Amino acid sequence: MTSPAVSSRDLPHPAREEIRLEAVLHALSDPMRLRIVRELASDGDELSCSYFDLPVTKSTSTHHFRVLRESGVVRQVYRGTAKMNGLRRDDLDGLFPGLLDTLVDAAAREAARLGAG
C-alpha cells in the first residue's frame, strides 16, 4: 500500500512475501548482475549506480539494476540525485537461508578461477 507522502521518485519493490526464488535465481544468472551483487555484498553498505564500472551501456546498466530491484535482490532509494543500491540481505536470508552467501562465494571462486577478479 502506498502512503500519500510517497514521492514520484520512490521506486517499486516487491514486498518480502512477494519475493520468489525463481526471480532471484534469474536475476543472479547474469554475469553483470552477479558482479553487482558481489560488490554490494563485499562492501556491505549502499552504493550508488555510478559506483559500478560495468562494461555495458548506461541503458543496459539501468536494466540490470531494475531486474535486481524487481526480483527483490536489491533495494534502490534516491539520496539527493544519486540512486543508491543495497542488498536486501535480511529478506533474502530470511526466505532462502544461506542462498546469497553461497552464490556470492561461488561467484567469487569462479572469478578467481577464470582470472576475472
Automatic annotation (TrEMBL):
List the InterPro entries: ArsR-like_HTH, HTH_ArsR_DNA-bd_dom, HTH_MetalResp_TranReg, WH-like_DNA-bd_sf, WH_DNA-bd_sf
| Residue ranges of domain HTH arsR-type in the record | 13-107
Keywords in UniProt for this one? DNA-binding, Transcription, Transcription regulation
Which CDD domains does UniProt cross-reference here? HTH_ARSR
Pfam families in alphabetical order: HTH_20
Q: Which residues form a coiled coil?
A: none
Q: What SMART domains has UniProt attached to this entry? A: HTH_ARSR
| Gene3D superfamilies hit by this protein | Winged helix-like DNA-binding domain superfamily/Winged helix DNA-binding domain
**PANTHER family the UniProt entry points to:** TRANSCRIPTIONAL REGULATOR, ARSR FAMILY (PTHR33154), TRANSCRIPTIONAL REGULATORY PROTEIN (PTHR33154:SF12)
What is this protein called in UniProt? ArsR family transcriptional regulator
Q: Which organism is it from?
A: Streptomyces akebiae
